[in-house]
Known about the structure:
5 helices
Amino acid sequence: PLNKVANTAKLLAQLLNRGALPVTVLKVVRWHDLDQRALFFWQVCFCELLNASTDVMTRTMLPLGSDGPAELRDGVLLFIKRDLERLVRRTRKDLFPALSHLLRILSPSSGGM
């Protein structure tokens, strides 16, 4: 059921935000090839990540900045641009400032911030 998927996604976000898992564990995700269930999972997970304080979200995601693994950063950016940004604009406008901040962190030209 989708509620189990959502709860697992929220758990992963909490583990990432608390530093119990490094964000680099996401390198195994095939961002370009997400089925509907995986897409839902990652949308819930990233909405939860974006819902954290700016400091927490920055600390969690900064390892993917300009000095981080380019392939992972590019995959996350693909997911954000293709799937997450539209969701945030339509249904979670409250998360748009956090999403904009995350995009600045991940932008290769920004030096991570």
